[in-house]
Amino acid sequence: MATDAPKSRLPGARRRALIIEAALAEFAAVGYEAASLGRIATAAGVARTVLYDHFDSKLALFSDLLATEEDALLAYLSAALESEGSTEQRWRATFDAFFRFAAEHRLAWQLLYPDRPPLDPEASDAYRLSRARHSRVLADLLAADARRAGLDPVTVEARAVFAMHRDALVAAARWWQAHPEVSREEIVAAAMAALWTGFGGMQPR
Fold first, then answer.
1. Which of the four, 50, 97, 123, 155, has the lowest number of CB atoms within 10 Å?
2. Confidence band (pLDDT; 50, 70, 90) for 62?
3. Which tens digit of pLDDT belongs to each residue from 88-127?
4. Which of 56, 58, 100, 97 is nearest to 78 (CA)?
5. CB contact at 8 A, 19 and 55
6. For all residues of the chain together, what is the average pLDDT?
């Protein structure tokens, strides 16, 4: 005689991973304001109450995602910036790592660099703090190269140079996503032509 065996209960870590995966897709697709915890719970295959066991609010879930994906991107960039070779070689590797992250982690990239950042004050603060931390870590990683170029990393000039490079790479990644026929090698070469030219010209001969 057939019996109704109870369904196995997913471990907490697995449920959390499913929630995060569903939330990343939701936030990347529709942005913070339009994101729905109900849709996230449904996509993760959990009850909404289970979602709240892991994250007590949409803001908490959004902030956790930002930190997680920011760390993933910084891991890509850190490995390149800390590699062996000349400054030019490291920067080429770093540009390549940025574009590789954009290609391999499209949802994460869209979360970190949305077309329209959050308008909600608390979410906007979380996003702003994430970007500030990201810029601070990158500035630390670039400090040695900046000093060799005669730039004090803590000056306004250096911070402006870093910001211009970051924003130019983001714009280039958006353009590349709209032109999939362009190879990663080609977009890296274009970025080097546009961005390394100025910074490399400051390097001591």
1. 155
2. very high
3. 888 899 999 999 999 999 999 999 999 889 999 999 999 9
4. 97
5. yes
6. 86
Helices (H), the chain: 12-34, 37-44, 48-54, 58-81, 87-104, 106-112, 121-148, 156-178, 184-191, 197-200
Please report where in the chains the tokens 């400054």 appear, as a residue: 87
CB 138 within 8 A of CB 77: yes
Cα 150 to Cα 64: distance, rounded to the nearest angstrom: 37
Distance (Å, rounded) from C-alpha 120 to C-alpha 34? 11
For the chain, which domains are there? 10-56 (1.10.10.60), 58-200 (1.10.357.10)
10 burial (CB, 10 Å; 0-12 / 13-18 / 19+) is middle
Q: In degrees rounded to 5, what are phi and psi of residue 93? A: -65, -35
